[in-house]
Amino acid sequence: MPRIIAGSFRGRRLAAPAQSTRPTSDRVREAIASMLGSRTDIADARVLDLYAGTGALALETLSRGAGQAVLVEADRKAATVARENIAHCGAGDRARVVQRTAESFLAAPSSVFDLVFLDPPYALSADAVTAVLAALPPHLAPGAWVVLERASRDEDPRWPDALEEVARKDYGDTTVTLAQLV
């Protein structure tokens, strides 16, 4: 069961639906926080968490000072659990869940975001992830950061020209890539 590692929600345990998600491990979430913390200040950031699952990535960021988060999750059970985790952390005034696919969310006009997490199912093809990455730039604020989590064994997606890969690190069977809007 994942837990919030740092910040105002520190130590809160998060529920996870049985079998429909693969929550980001505490170790990887801490590594992502370190990668971001050495490059940007997330205070008051507007966060988009695509393929949100339990909401652990967005909630960890809110716990550390981000301002608002939109969690996009297509799976009904996972979306319900993400809403419960938001309530459990007391973040209902700063976070909301949108039950849609990442593709349909990005196809519609929305706010712009300072930080985007993508933690798609490992079974999602590199081409499908490439299409989602290509749809991101209109939803990004100047200088926005994008964090992609994929299986280390998976083929790499192609980043659009508007996003520059800044860092990449493997954590066991997980690869985390950090990119910034140029």
What does this structure look like?
- This protein is an alpha/beta fold and 182 residues long.
- The protein is built from five helices and seven strands.
- The model has no long low-confidence stretch (mean pLDDT 92).
- A seven-stranded mixed beta sheet has the order 3-2-1-4-5-7-6, covered by helices on one side.
- It has one domain: 3-Layer(aba) Sandwich (Rossmann fold), CATH 3.40.50.150.
Name the quaternary structure.
single chain
Mean pLDDT: 92
* Estimated share of beta-strand residues: 25-35%
- Overall, the morphology is globular
Q: Architecture, according to CATH?
A: 3-Layer(aba) Sandwich
CATH class: Alpha Beta
Query: Order of strands across the biggest sheet?
Result: 3-2-1-4-5-7-6
Q: State the secondary-structure class.
A: alpha/beta
Question: How far apart, in Å, are the first and last alpha carbons?
Answer: 37 Å
Helix tally? Answer: 5
Number of domains: 1
Order of helices and strands, N to C? HEHEHEHEHEEE
- What's the number of extended β-strand segments? 7
